[in-house]
Design a protein that fits this description.
This protein has a single domain, classed as 2-Layer Sandwich (Double Stranded RNA Binding Domain). About 55% of the residues lie in helices and about 10% in strands. It has 3 helices and 3 strands. The relative contact order is 0.12.
């Protein structure tokens, strides 16, 4: 009895942890994705190794909302009419490896949007300060070169 309750609790926590985080932790729930396989072009009788992973951007609650909005703006050219973001891979001849490659591409895209939301203001300030320091150093060096001649 206790074992069953513990299993239910752990199973429930696994399902809900995607929704509780405020930052993207890199975990992509497979039950929220549509995965399909198709044969390579020109090889209709061959193995179905080309993988396609898609999901609706507006309905995905496992991506934090600021990152989701930025994701929608950044990749709107890759979102089809139905609102699906589609990732395809045919890197290997094995379907499961191609799905893993699709998930890796998707994870990288989401992290790119999530990280840019949190670090964007800090990076801009740091870059401006570094540029200002470099310009000051260069101008001092130019002045020293002019006075030395």
């Amino acid at each position: 009895m206790f074992r069953a309750l513990l299993f239910r609790r752990l199973h429930f926590e696994k399902k809900t942890r995607f929704y509780a985080t405020k930052q993207f932790d890199g975990t992509i729930p497979m039950e929220k994705l549509d995965v399909s396989y198709s044969p390579f072009e020109g090889d209709a009788s061959g193995p179905s190794a080309r993988a396609e992973v898609k999901f609706r951007v507006k309905e995905c609650d496992w991506i934090p909302s600021p990152a989701r909005e930025r994701f929608f703006e950044t990749f709107k050219h890759r979102i089809d009419r139905d609102g699906y973001f589609v990732v395809r891979s045919e890197r290997t001849r094995v379907g499961s490896l191609n799905v893993a490659d699709c998930l890796d591409k998707l994870r990288f895209s989401i992290r790119e949007c999530a990280d840019s939301d949190s670090n964007r203001a800090k990076d801009v300030k740091q870059n401006n300060e570094e540029l200002r320091r470099k310009k000051e150093i260069e101008s001092k060096m130019k002045l020293q070169m002019k006075t030395a001649i």
